[in-house]
Amino acid sequence: MDFDTIRARLDKLLAEGRKGELRGALTMLNEVDIAEYLETLDNEKVLMVFRLLPKDISADVFAYMDNDQRQRIIEAMDDGEAMRLVDDMFVDDAVDFLEELPAGVVKRMLKNCDENKRQLINQFLRYPENSAGSIMTIEYMELHRGTTVGEAMAEIRRTGLDKETIYTLYVLDERRKLLGTVPLRKLLLAKDDTQVESLMNQQFVCVHTTDDQEAVADTVRKYDLISIPVVDNEERMIGIITIDDIVDVIEEENTEDFERMAAMFPSEDTYLKTSVLTLVKNRMPWLLILMISGIFTGIIIQHYEDILRTTLSGGVLTACIPILMDTGGNCGSQASTLTIRGLALGEITPHDLGKVLFKELRVGMLVGALLALCGFGIAVFAFGGTIGAATTIAIALFFAVVMAQVLGCVLPVLAKSIKLDPALMASPLITTIVDVGSLIILFMVAINVLHV
Amino acid sequence: MDFDTIRARLDKLLAEGRKGELRGALTMLNEVDIAEYLETLDNEKVLMVFRLLPKDISADVFAYMDNDQRQRIIEAMDDGEAMRLVDDMFVDDAVDFLEELPAGVVKRMLKNCDENKRQLINQFLRYPENSAGSIMTIEYMELHRGTTVGEAMAEIRRTGLDKETIYTLYVLDERRKLLGTVPLRKLLLAKDDTQVESLMNQQFVCVHTTDDQEAVADTVRKYDLISIPVVDNEERMIGIITIDDIVDVIEEENTEDFERMAAMFPSEDTYLKTSVLTLVKNRMPWLLILMISGIFTGIIIQHYEDILRTTLSGGVLTACIPILMDTGGNCGSQASTLTIRGLALGEITPHDLGKVLFKELRVGMLVGALLALCGFGIAVFAFGGTIGAATTIAIALFFAVVMAQVLGCVLPVLAKSIKLDPALMASPLITTIVDVGSLIILFMVAINVLHV
């Protein structure tokens, strides 16, 4: 049954006010689908339907709803009801939500919760944005040194329902230092009187609260983990990050790379929710910088104007400027994309600069030669250029392509090695540099080949 | 301890031939790190160190090694040893590996394994590339209708070690139709004589063997799953796909989008492992197509050459052509990137075309007006242009920007609605179209404003 059919049926029950049946129908759906359905409703209906949800799933549905709707629901609730809802959420989801609320509302909500929870939430709200601390959760299963398998299983049965994952257990010492991890699988296969320490994996991988979420995602991806422990500066266990949140981080970081590579500042929200003004603000700075850098190309063209006007070139050089510039830009874009992506996935490191450069140099010479040939043909047959003019264009094309490939691979690697985001060294910036370079080459070659 | 230190210690043990100690040191490492270490060794040493590994982890290490090394190891082994290794791998890893081997080697290996396994592997090798079937594994925990919790736990203890995940259990009927899923967590909290069917989640999400891996990844991401069941056309359970493989699919699909958006054919291998010739082959087709399309811009320039030469424009128009074209290209790149990304993440659907278009139109007019103003200034102050020439450029810039934004959002959405990959409608293609459009606008405006 597809979403439209489900929606039509629920809408019908809602319109006819058959609340009992609607409640029944909702319990047949996945929390994600319920949240999706709620997004289609207007404000007053959302709250009404939300209150129909069974208590045990309402916090989950709430976590999947969009922020505007969540805020409206919270505002319509009294303080007690709102706090109970936040209480039912996992700490990472609750903090995500509270971060987006106006400070006044957060204060009002925190006033109503107990001292421990308040301290905890405040601590979470203090972790730097995009740090491991800001995306972790504290609902993990911890075991103490000396626990037996039987005791551990009893503990899981007692408290496991409230944990975000019970599939990896964490063994801590008296000072809460993480000693090792035990997969639940091993626990199930062991005898009841076995000490959990003997099952423990001591070669566990962990991250620190202040680590960047991108580095965390890289680690989880590399080691195929489903959760990763987070420790503080004294190696004390603080929380865990689960794979579902890592998947979101991966997509977020990819989106940021896509945006940076298209010369934009990354946006906080999804496209449809970002205002026109914010979109303009994210796009203008680089557009302006690149446009102003374009002055150099203009100055070069003005300086060598005579060459363009000479009858020797017959207007062919001017006609070929767009082809020269676009081809250079496209080649730079190809080389930089592969390099930036390779760096992001860890397939290329700054140590590989030599290898990458040698490869792009060979690719550049091959591609450059082929495109130069093609450019020669275009100059002669499409634009009726002389052999001299066509040769000029072919040579300029060749060098523009090689230059674009080299810059395309060198600049991102250099950026990485000085801790800048390689994605900044992408097509738009490289195109602008290559434009200047290829025009200079074009005119130098013209002077020497056409003798103007 | 960082990787370089680990490597130095292992290298020392290896050089001094202290095999026992080396073996001991290796068992202290994660499988992923061992594979990374093996990649630093030359051929003969790899095989020697590989054979030192304890049997229970060698298949895991093998799964993390790179293909060339795996092939060399297999070739150095006799048939029996090779087949035992493949036997120890999960079916999805084994198939991944066999797919990369030369047909002759696969045949030789399959000859040595038993009938069941051979049939199974052959079936897997037949699933279309990038389908759910090609990435799934069959090592999941299945339960039958009527099983009690106690029986299920006993079954997990008996066979759980060989399963890729035991954290979700699948309840099947007599015809192997999937009835529901049971998280291990629920099983642990339930009484031994409870029927598993009563704990079962019937609102499970599943995919079909022929579904594209990208769609599978979208589903897993949307529902925050750690594994997803795969069924055939008759809804019979065939296998599962686990989140670690989904994470790889997500990165692979992102890489493909990055490559397509930079006008390249996606490559099969990582950058450093792709040959120069393959890189050239992946890059040339679009470069040629875009270059040949550039003929149109050239023809337009040749046709209106008189306007560029007139003293009224004083060479300013020619000097501004690169700025006009790059700015148009950059704006098209920004709009298309956000649209393509929004479509890929499901944040934008073809139904939203109206909303997206209206938004880009407003962004385009604002950005266009600001850039036109800036362009006017550049024409006057940097290039010494007349008010007339500067006005011409400003107007052309405004329309080029608006056109680029509109095409940048409309083309990817249209591509999606006719089932083409939206990533094809990215910056290089849009730049080429916008080039033609903005030049035509430039000359039309020049004729009307400058009266040439």
From TrEMBL, chains A, B:
One GO CC term on file: plasma membrane
Residue ranges constituting the CBS domain according to the UniProt record: 200-256
Membrane topology: Multi-pass membrane protein
Localization annotation: Cell membrane; Membrane
Keyword terms, alphabetized: CBS domain, Cell membrane, Magnesium, Membrane, Metal-binding, Transmembrane, Transmembrane helix, Transport
CDD domains in the record: CBS_pair_Mg_transporter
Pfam families per the UniProt record, alphabetical: CBS (PF00571), MgtE (PF01769), MgtE_N (PF03448)
Origin superkingdom: Bacteria
UniProt cross-references to SUPFAM superfamilies, sorted A to Z: CBS-domain pair, MgtE membrane domain-like, MgtE N-terminal domain-like
MF (Gene Ontology): magnesium ion transmembrane transporter activity; metal ion binding
Transmembrane segments: 284-301, 363-387, 393-414, 426-450
InterPro entries given in the database record: CBS_dom, CBS_dom_sf, Mg_transptr_MgtE_intracell_dom, MgtE_N_sf, MgtE_transporter, SLC41_membr_dom, SLC41_membr_dom_sf
Recorded family membership: Belongs to the SLC41A transporter family.
PANTHER family, A to Z: MAGNESIUM TRANSPORTER MGTE (PTHR43773:SF1)
Its biological purpose: Acts as a magnesium transporter.
Subunit structure: Homodimer.
Protein name per the record: Magnesium transporter MgtE
Higher taxonomy: Bacteria, Bacillati, Bacillota, Clostridia, Candidatus Pullichristensenella
